């Protein structure tokens, strides 16, 4: 294995023992070697085999356009995720995350803010990846001296969700997150309320919606006898009942299945608590 070109402080273009062209990644590896040098394998953190000429061109362009420091930051964040959570990641995350970091920093310095509407869902459904995103924010602060916004936690987490070989963000989890978000929106617009996302009842509501959506998607049968309680709650919470009927209409439109009465009951109770808390604090 020998070097054909130093791309930057963290990337080298090389050829392996079979004369295959490869990209080598390692912290500070570009400082220690030059073209024609033999390599110490201990200095190599990642190897990319270049079977596609277009991929090779993209990597070389990325290496020449992006500050090598961002490659090092990406490696720190990825190492944290692997060491703490034993994640099995696809190789593309090393370059994709580096590219994202460079873009996010440039955007931040230009004063451009992009919201991440799925931040709360990521926190609830993917706590490991959310934690990696939080760690990334601390790295940006310590290494670059930049206080990137909280939304960036979700953006970084998204890279780790998508790069996992056994992606935990399965189709069911995606559909579950869609249901949670849709019901939150229905309640929001029906009552013209602004949620206090730090409140106890809001968090309880979201946790309930997450569990409900999983039950609904799994088509779990309801066995509880709730007719009397249902009638009492419906009688005393008329507006909550009307809102839940909208939720039921949405679920039927999307999934061609009726909302079980038991689930209607629990939704009415949670919505009532949310409204009561907002009323107390207004």
From TrEMBL:
PROSITE patterns for this protein: PRD_2
* GO process annotations (BP): regulation of DNA-templated transcription
InterPro entries the record matches: BglG_antiterminators, CAT_RNA-bd_dom, CAT_RNA-bd_dom_sf, PRD, PRD_sf
Q: Please tell me whether the keyword Repeat is annotated for this protein.
A: yes
The organism sits in which domain of life?
Answer: Bacteria
One Pfam family cited in the UniProt record for this chain: CAT_RBD
A molecular function annotated in GO for this UniProt entry is: RNA binding
Keyword set for this entry? Repeat
> Which positions fall inside the PRD domain?
65-170, 171-281
Q: Which PANTHER family match?
A: CRYPTIC BETA-GLUCOSIDE BGL OPERON ANTITERMINATOR
Q: What is this protein called?
A: PRD domain-containing protein
Q: Which gene encodes it?
A: licT_3
């Amino acid at each position: 294995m020998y070097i054909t070109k130093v791309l930057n402080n963290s990337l080298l273009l090389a050829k392996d023992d079979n004369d295959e062209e490869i990209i080598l990644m390692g912290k500070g590896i570009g400082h220690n070697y030059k073209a024609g040098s033999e390599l110490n394998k201990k200095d190599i953190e990642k190897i990319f085999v270049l079977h596609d000429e277009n991929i090779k061109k993209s990597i070389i362009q990325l290496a020449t356009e992006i500050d090598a420091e961002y490659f090092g930051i990406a490696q720190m964040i990825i190492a944290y995720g692997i060491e703490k959570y034993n994640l099995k990641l696809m190789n593309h995350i090393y370059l994709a995350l580096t590219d994202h970091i460079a873009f996010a920093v440039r955007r931040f310095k230009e004063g451009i803010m992009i919201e991440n509407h799925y931040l709360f869902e990521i926190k609830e459904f993917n706590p490991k990846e959310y934690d990696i995103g939080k760690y990334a924010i601390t790295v940006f602060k310590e290494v670059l001296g930049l206080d990137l916004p909280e939304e960036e936690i979700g953006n970084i987490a998204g890279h780790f969700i998508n790069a996992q070989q056994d992606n935990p963000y399965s189709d069911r989890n995606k559909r579950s997150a869609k249901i949670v978000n849709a019901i939150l929106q229905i309640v929001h617009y029906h009552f013209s309320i602004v949620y206090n996302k730090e409140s106890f009842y809001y968090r309880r509501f979201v946790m309930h919606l997450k569990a409900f959506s999983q039950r609904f998607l799994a088509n779990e049968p309801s066995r509880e006898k709730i007719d009397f309680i249902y009638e009492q709650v419906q009688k005393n919470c008329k507006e909550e009942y009307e809102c839940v009927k909208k939720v039921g209409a949405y679920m039927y439109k999307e999934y061609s299945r009726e909302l079980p009465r038991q689930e209607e009951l629990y939704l009415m109770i949670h919505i009532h608590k949310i409204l009561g808390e907002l009323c107390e604090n207004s």
